[in-house]
């Protein structure tokens, strides 16, 4: 339409403003080492065990998001997108158990490391009813997209990912998971567009925190903290 102002969606703006941090989370040396075939398998096993603990804590966060969506969303289809995330998590938990037994990782004896505990504590803070749906769904998008982008890159042109790790990368790097992340991004952008300044600032701060926690999580997997 002539003269109509085309606003850049909020998430795209943030991705430009925080490009360096986003790249640190989605092109981390840990996932880059999977992509170039040099990954240290003890680091991979550490990631596997720690991520299983994280994913278990992620389930109640997503449950709290479903509740917020049901109460606060202006669009019925949001809940279906989030429910798709619950289904993916259900598969993920079974996958972690199978994968752990394949790699001889004893899940029952994993002790959560500091970076993981802090990230799980942060997730718990987002479960509070005081955290608005817009803020929580934006956090959810950020958490999911880091894995999507990181693992899709391990499968993209020029990758030397070993056959035994390709399945792991496909779990988050597949096209359906990519589409699901775009749907979450659309929900977040739609909500942010209608939000007052204070909610927008809160959501931006949470996205930054998520990206920082994700970097710490990959660092921990490499045995760096
Ligand atoms: C730390 C972390 N971040 C994100 C995801 C993707 N659900 C995950 N499994 N673990």
From TrEMBL:
Pathway(s) the chain acts in: Cofactor biosynthesis; thiamine diphosphate biosynthesis
Location of the Thiaminase-2/PQQC domain: 16-222
Keywords from the named record: Disulfide bond, Hydrolase, Thiamine biosynthesis
Enzyme class: hydrolase
One GO MF term: thiaminase activity
EC number: 3.5.99.2
GO CC terms of this entry: cytosol
Pfam family, one: TENA_THI-4
The family this protein is said to belong to: Belongs to the thiaminase-2 family.
UniProt protein name: aminopyrimidine aminohydrolase
Native organism: Nicotiana tabacum (Common tobacco)
Species lineage: Eukaryota, Viridiplantae, Streptophyta, Embryophyta, Tracheophyta
């Amino acid at each position: 339409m002539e003269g109509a102002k085309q606003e850049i969606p909020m998430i795209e703006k943030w991705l430009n403003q925080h490009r360096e941090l986003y790249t640190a989370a989605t092109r981390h040396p840990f996932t880059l080492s999977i992509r170039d075939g040099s990954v240290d398998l003890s680091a991979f096993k550490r990631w596997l065990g720690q991520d299983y603990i994280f994913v278990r804590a992620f389930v109640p966060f997503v449950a709290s998001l479903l509740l917020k969506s049901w109460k606060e969303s202006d669009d019925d289809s949001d809940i279906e997108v989030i429910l798709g995330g619950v289904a993916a998590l259900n598969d993920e938990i079974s996958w972690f158990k199978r994968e752990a037994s394949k790699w001889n990782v004893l899940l029952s004896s994993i002790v959560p490391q500091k970076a993981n505990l802090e990230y799980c504590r942060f997730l718990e803070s987002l479960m509070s009813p005081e955290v608005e749906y817009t803020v929580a769904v934006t956090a959810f998008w950020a958490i999911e997209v880091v894995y999507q982008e990181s693992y899709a890159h391990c499968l993209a042109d020029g990758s030397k990912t070993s056959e035994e790790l390709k399945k792991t990368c496909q779990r988050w790097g597949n096209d359906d998971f990519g589409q699901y992340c775009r749907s979450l991004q659309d929900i977040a952008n739609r909500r942010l567009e209608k939000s007052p300044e204070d909610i927008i600032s809160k959501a931006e701060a949470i996205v930054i925190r998520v990206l920082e926690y994700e970097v710490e999580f990959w660092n921990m997997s490499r045995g760096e903290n």
